[in-house]
UniProtKB/TrEMBL annotation:
Organism: Falco tinnunculus
GO cellular component: mitochondrion
Record: active site: 433
InterPro entries from the UniProt entry: Acyl-CoA_DH_CS (IPR006089), Acyl-CoA_Oxase/DH_mid-dom (IPR006091), Acyl-CoA_Oxase/DH_mid-dom_sf (IPR046373), AcylCo_DH-like_C (IPR036250), AcylCo_DH/oxidase_C (IPR009075), AcylCoA_DH/ox_N (IPR013786), AcylCoA_DH/ox_N_sf (IPR037069), AcylCoA_DH/oxidase_NM_dom_sf (IPR009100)
Acyl-CoA dehydrogenase/oxidase C-terminal domain ranges (all copies): 298-448
The protein's name: Isobutyryl-CoA dehydrogenase, mitochondrial
Region (Disordered): 1-40
EC number of the protein: 1.3.8.5
PANTHER family: ISOBUTYRYL-COA DEHYDROGENASE, ISOBUTYRYL-COA DEHYDROGENASE, MITOCHONDRIAL
UniProt superkingdom: Eukaryota
Occurrences of domain Acyl-CoA dehydrogenase/oxidase N-terminal (ranges): 77-188
Similarity remark: Belongs to the acyl-CoA dehydrogenase family.
């Protein structure tokens, strides 16, 4: 079965997978938890989260601090639990120790992502014949939630990359699939999704980037804004206008870095998501072969929206991971932090807030996984359920992370503490892949027109 691509070769033999040791044994750099306000990331350069690392283990391993009621492995098959564990262990060993440094120094962790690709995470729901893992949308959600506990920003980029590869795999012809997908699935090359423009964000159907047909090529002109990976990635999936106004005039082209006329704006300074570069992508008389068009002319908007349905599940799943980690951090902080002579955990108000956080986390997870199943099954209501899940999960998970920061008091506002980075990284999830206001419009339209 395709999903065995993600399973350890021998879980009983030290948990080795494709030559990498992702066993449940604590990593050598882990330090024991300490009580009191010293629960900070050691610095400089604050590479290891002394508190975060011991908590971000697969719940199935029975680690202290993860209650059964919020266990993300609940209800999963044994196979799903296995690759979830691989993802949790990878997040704890390969991502969490570097999360603060990647953020502070704005490092795009290419080599770490290539290690993730060795586990099958570069093309999770891409067909195996071009290097993908061939897993379901639910499986994908499980993996992104687990990875996001180690670094939400990096996982979010991996999710966008996966969406691009899926679009080529699904809508490309055989030549395109075999030309682009293998190197993208291995993350030898990286991809960016180019839809948003300076003048058309939520109103994507009004985009102005144009592609004029000239013989066997298109002449591409225009610009895209807020492109994740822009300038550092190798393949650009570009929505452009080849016909008249409106969605039916939009087509999808695949453009490679190094194409004459392709340039990039300055690297944006952002509140969060600092482990992935964001730039404008500019096209000036770029010559793109017609053979690089995905689907027929006029199908671009449909391709973009179908990609975004999965993208909304993916980004909601990243939000779940950040919220899950934040609940664990808050739980541990309340247990070890003392005020007025007793642990904060004895305060009933804080108990109630923690209970609300846990309840919202589980509700969001159930909604996301339900939408993922609907998308996989091709249900008629899948697009609306994806919008509902993205809306609910990103709103609720941001509230959870923000409340966890509040529970940490002044310490939560320090960059030595992991919780503040989850808050900063997750905030943009309410904006991208369609703002949450647009999600509300989609849901309302379905209710009123259905």
């Amino acid at each position: 079965m395709a999903c065995r691509l993600l399973l350890p070769r021998s879980p009983r033999a030290g948990g080795r997978y494709r030559g990498q040791d992702y066993s449940s044994q604590p990593a050598p750099h882990r330090q024991p938890l300490r009580s009191g306000p010293a629960m900070a990331w050691p610095g400089p350069p604050r590479l290891a989260a002394r508190l975060l690392l011991p908590l971000l283990r697969c719940p199935a391993a029975g680690r202290r601090g993860i209650a059964a009621c919020i266990d993300p492995s609940a209800g999963l098959t044994e196979e799903q639990k296995e690759f979830q564990k691989v993802a949790f262990d990878f997040a704890a060993k390969e991502m969490a120790p570097h999360m603060a440094e990647w953020d502070e120094k704005e490092i795009f962790p290419v080599e770490t992502m290539r290690k993730a690709a060795q586990l099958g995470f570069g093309g999770i729901y891409v067909k195996p014949d071009v290097g993908g893992s061939g897993l379901s949308r639910l499986d994908t959600s499980i993996i992104f939630e687990a990875l996001s506990t180690g670094c939400t920003s990096t996982t979010a980029y991996i999710s966008i990359h996966n969406m691009c590869v899926w679009m080529i795999d699904t809508f490309g012809n055989e030549e395109q699939r075999r030309r682009f997908c293998p190197s993208l699935c291995s993350m030898e090359k990286f991809a960016s999704y180019c839809l948003t423009e300076p003048g058309s964000g939520s109103d994507a159907a009004s985009l102005l980037t144009s592609a004029q047909r000239k013989g066997d090529s298109y002449i591409l002109n225009g610009s895209k804004a807020f492109i994740s990976g822009g300038g550092d990635t190798d393949v650009y999936v570009v929505m452009c206008r080849t016909g008249g106004p409106g969605p039916k005039g939009i087509s999808c082209l695949v453009l490679e870095k190094g194409t004459p006329g392709l340039s990039f704006g300055k690297k944006e300074k952002k509140v969060g998501w600092n482990s992935q570069p964001t730039r404008a992508v500019i096209f000036e008389d770029c010559v793109v072969p017609v053979s690089n068009r995905l689907g027929a002319e006029g199908q671009g908007f449909s391709i973009a929206m179908k990609g975004l349905n999965g993208g909304r599940i993916n980004i909601a799943s990243c939000s779940l991971g950040a919220a899950h980690a934040s609940v664990l951090l808050a739980q541990e902080h309340l247990t070890v932090r003392k005020q007025f002579g007793e642990p904060l955990a004895n305060n009933q108000y804080l108990q109630f807030r923690l209970a609300e956080m846990a309840t919202r986390l589980v509700a969001a997870r159930l909604m996301v996984r339900n939408a993922a199943r609907a998308l996989q099954e091709g249900r008629e209501d899948a697009a609306v359920l994806c919008s509902m899940a993205k809306l609910f999960a990103t709103d609720e998970c941001f509230a959870i992370c923000n409340q966890a920061l509040q529970m940490h008091g002044g310490y939560g506002y320090l960059k030595d503490y992991a919780v503040q980075q989850f808050v900063r990284d997750i905030r943009v999830h309410q904006i991208l892949e369609g703002t949450n206001e647009v999600m509300r419009m989609i849901v309302a339209r379905s209710l009123l027109q259905g």
